[in-house]
Write a structure and sequence with these properties.
Number of strands of chain A: 6
CATH superfamily of chain B: Ferritin, core subunit, four-helix bundle
Number of domains of chain A: 1
CATH architecture of chain B: Up-down Bundle
Shape of chain A: globular
GO molecular function, one term (chain B): oxidoreductase activity
Radius of gyration of chain B: 18 Å
Order of helices and strands of chain A: EEEEHEEH
Helix content of chain B: over 70%
EC number (chain B): 1.16.3.2
Structural class of chain A: alpha+beta
Helix content of chain A: 25-40%
GO biological process, one term (chain B): iron ion transport
Distance between the termini of chain B: 57 Å
Strand order of the largest sheet of chain A: 1-2-3-4
Largest sheet of chain B: none
Protein name (chain B): Ferritin
Radius of gyration of chain A: 15 Å
Keywords (chain B): Cytoplasm, Iron, Iron storage, Metal-binding, Oxidoreductase
Number of helices of chain A: 2
Oligomer: heterodimer
Distance between the termini of chain A: 22 Å
Strand content of chain B: under 5%
Chain lengths: 105, 168
């Protein structure tokens, strides 16, 4: 498996053989089909991180994230969420750059 | 690394995002037309109400067409959340002006996606959207034709009622 992107807390791997991704969430590693990876990106993008800085909107500063049709459940704090957001966006960017580079070379 | 995105999906991720935004836009347009139909019904403009009910249904069909296309291509279509629909209008003419502005915004958005698809060599998306280009021309024309009626027949008294009766 190849590392796509590594953030402070998490790592995304790609398995060319299985045509899928693996996300190491520290507590556990989850297998993501491409569609599930897209769904994760949508979920992460839709999290209103600004609410974490307003105690009326998010009292506890936590977010519950359910992945792969509720197969996995994570409770993330603000720092972990920011890190996950960065991992997801940077992973897509890395994949894009890799494809552009492979076409160019 | 293998291009897993391409192995799973016939369209580019950038196009997928743009098409999901378009789903949101078409969904909002559909709800907006429903609000206009409701206003027309409440104000006894039955011809216009019938037109807007039909328009609402057409916009939903457009949304469904894009929705199905994304999923058929192996992508991840996202059901839109619609909020902040305006229900307040001051006249029938204002409603048709708003409808035209809405159609122009949809046309611009479609053109933008086509431009993006061309740039990224996503020809399947470009080809798919050609139908929408033609459709938008018709939609804009029908709204402009109705707005022309206000210029020709006027905006006072019985004229508005006569305009409504001409709208099918």
């Amino acid at each position: 498996m190849k590392v796509v992107f590594r953030s402070k807390f998490y790592t995304l791997y790609q398995s060319d053989k299985e045509k899928c991704h693996y996300l190491d969430m520290d507590q556990k590693t989850i297998k993501l089909s491409f569609c599930q990876f897209l769904a994760l990106r949508t979920k992460v993008r839709n999290i209103a991180i600004e609410d974490h800085f307003d105690s009326d909107l998010n009292k506890h500063g936590f977010e519950i994230l359910m992945l792969c049709n509720k197969e996995h459940l994570f409770i993330l704090n603000t720092l972990e969420l920011l890190d996950l957001k960065s991992l997801v966006e940077c992973s897509f960017m890395t994949i894009d750059i890799d494809q552009i580079a492979s076409r160019t070379i | 690394m293998k291009d897993i995105a391409r192995l799973n999906m016939s369209i580019k991720v950038t196009s997928l995002d743009a098409l999901n935004d378009q789903i949101q836009m078409e969904g909002k347009a559909s709800s907006s037309y429903l609000a206009m139909a409701s206003w027309c019904d409440q104000n006894s403009y039955s011809g216009s109400a019938a037109l807007f009910y039909r328009q609402a249904s057409e916009e939903r069909e457009h949304m469904m067409k894009i929705f199905k296309f994304i999923n058929d291509c192996g992508g991840n279509a996202i059901s839109p959340e619609i909020s902040n629909i305006n229900h307040d209008f001051s006249s029938l003419e204002e409603i048709f002006e708003t409808a035209l502005e809405q159609e122009i915004a949809v046309t611009k958005s479609i053109n933008k996606i086509i431009s993006l698809a061309k740039k990224t060599e996503d020809y399947a998306v470009e080809n798919f959207l050609q139908w929408f280009v033609k459709e938008q021309l018709e939609e804009e024309k029908s709204m402009r034709d109705i707005l022309d009626l206000f210029e020709v027949m006027g905006r006072e008294g019985i004229a508005i009622k006569l305009i409504d009766e001409r709208i099918k």
